Amino acid sequence: MPGCGKCGATLDIGFQQIGRSDECPSCGAELRACIHCRHFDEAAAKECKEPFAEVPLDKERSNFCELFQIGDGSQRGGASKSATLAAAEALFGPKR
Q: Which of 20, 32, 36, 49 is the most exposed place for a label (fewest CB within 10 A)?
């Protein structure tokens, strides 16, 4: 199910295309942005798994990428970087 890459809300869009002016009904994020794309990967080069994409600098703003496909942002959205770092610190932190 498509989801917002920022807040994790499920998007009820079916097979509709995402337009440049579409926003998440939950948090207001612009949906046609890299963080909502299924090719977005923070661990990949340029944070994009698509090697031929022209990746914009601001990945949270709408763009004109022809390779954009809405992803399942509900799997990654809503988790802040600080929460992830805290979990890693708890797991790999100093031994007592």
A: 20
